Amino acid sequence: MNRKKVCELLAVIVLLIFFFGCETASQKEEKKHIVNANRAIQKKDFILAAEELSKALEINNSNSLSHYNLAYVMETELNDPDSAIEQYKLAIKYSPNRYSFAYKNIGKLYYEQGNFDQAIEAYRTAIEKLPKNTLAHNDLAVALTKKGLFREAIEELKKAMKLDPNDETVK
After folding, report:
1. Which of the pair, 151 or 160, is modelled with greater confidence?
2. Residue 13: CB atoms within 10 Å
3. Are 60 and 30 in contact (CB under 8 A)?
4. What percent of the chain has pLDDT over 70?
5. 3-state secondary structure string across 131-167
6. Contact between 127 and 140 (Cβ < 8 Å)
7. Residue 17 above 60 pLDDT?
């Protein structure tokens, strides 16, 4: 093999090592906690999953997917709406385009707590980000009704019906 080929081969090897073998110790630790959280979720051990996701976030607090997954576990399995809201907001903060749909989740949690003003605000933000989301319009209408804002609620239901006339939730 000539010298040029050897140099090219070494360059490829160095690039492969760089791209696939340069995880820092903290990245490896974060990944370990995320893997452990996923295993815990599969085993339906949601307390352990929340603990592992929290540990991963201690290492890398800007991991929007870990914030979203922790929020989801807190909301659906551990019945901790305040923590879920906080984690959804952090997921949105670190990846606003990817998790804009989480505003609807936040609205639902506020609604369930009886915080109708905050629910309305969250649903309006969800609609601003995703204007064709029929359920967000519908949920906003329900929250507006709770505040006695019936005309606005009817307008939202009309928008929802216009977006999807076959949607049974808005009929």
Report:
1. 151
2. 10
3. yes
4. 85
5. CCCHHHHHHHHHHHHHCCCHHHHHHHHHHHHHHCCCC
6. yes
7. no
Tokens matching residue 26 = 């903290």
The answer to whether the pTM exceeds 0.85 is no
Q: How far apart are CA 153 and CA 161, in angstroms?
A: 12
Pick from 18, 60, 55, 21: nearest CA to 36: 55
CA dihedral 90→93→94→100, nearest 10 degrees, is 100
Distance (Å, rounded) from C-alpha 12 to C-alpha 161?
57
Identity of the amino acid at 125: T
Q: d(Cα 136, Cα 105) in Å, to the nearest integer?
A: 10
And the tokens for 93?
């903060």
CA 62 to chain centre: 13
